[in-house]
Design a protein that fits this description.
The chain is α/β, with parallel strands linked by helices. The protein is 40% helix and 14% strand.
Amino acid sequence: MRKNLLKKQSGTFRYIIREIVSLAQKVESQGKEIFWENIGDPIQKGEQVESWVKDIIINKTKDNLAYGYCPTAGVMDARRFIVDEVNSRDGAKITTDDIIFFNGLGDGIAKIYKSLDPDTRVIGPSPAYSPHSTAESDHASSPHLTYRCDPNNKWLPDVEDLKNKIKENENITGILLINPGNPTGAVLSRDMFEEIVEIARINKMFIVCDEIYSKIVFNGHKPQFLSEVIGEVPGIAMRGISKEIPWPGSRCGWIEILNRDKDEEFDEYARKILALKMVEVCSTTLPQMCIPEILGDSRYPELLKRRARKFEARAKEATDLLSGIDGVNAICPDGAFYFTLAFDDGVLNQTQTLNIENEKIKEIVETSCAGIADDQRFVHYLLGATGICTVPLSGFSCNTNGIRFILLEEDDVKRQHVFNTLANSIKEYVGKS
């Protein structure tokens, strides 16, 4: 080509959660049943959407407006509903001008980073959620900057590490929080939440908080939101309906812009995000029209509680099976529906294997293991030997070896098989060190 087609850091753009699918499909083509424990889609794992939710959606499809464009920032009734919800809390207040809808939070994530000056960096948690880390890296044409989350402290942020990274790099102007965490399921305490906000205030920074799982918390935790702790610090809260209702196929997420009046440049940044959205005209109309009726329904709070109890029980089920394995730290999540297991340093190496009876699958796995990280190697052997498809922590911008799997399987027998097989496979694999 006459000129380079790619930005200089484009090779870092990876989505390891879905990359494992291509290997799994090769294994599946050889007759192996695959247990898809890699992607957080409740519908694919058998969860049924409530009939009353479906009735609301069906009724909305009869409204001719559901088939047309909506305002760029979103359907006004949906924006008013969200504003009322946010303003009912103690904390920062917003108006409908502070709400922007997107085609899923992935779309919103891309635009909040694309709107920044390339020299302005947003530091995020490690383990990192790939859409955030890759979008931030791509906008800066540089590897994503991260602060450490501690597996020995329930994957909560290492605040001292965060402070040091900010001190070392004056380009860091934003702090990303994911609360509850993906991939870890970690939930910030109120004190830690406020401490990180104070760091942003002192350093004249803004905060982005991905709250897509904010209403899926358990083990005694209650939902909490950036607007409640932000004070006068500028911030962006990111929410959606894909995980709550759940309705991932709706591709319907939004941002809540907080304290834009407190900083002129931040306000201009918010305007640029909206301008980028204007190029696409608008986001999906139908799910936005459904939001006030579904989220405002008297049955919705109980739906949230029931789902939280379900994931709490499954988290305990997995913890009981995986705790006590030598060299493994099974960290019970407090929110979302993921389970992240960490291996102690030195436990994994490049010589360990699992028995794979099918010679063709064995060849596929062995070929795939050339030059990959230790935890990715375990994931590949686990897939070939058992059909269980998980994600390595090294794919989440993380230096700790480990895996992430989901707590979504609705079939109790199948879920218990996966957990038991996973525990036995880890023991076998680690025992070969």
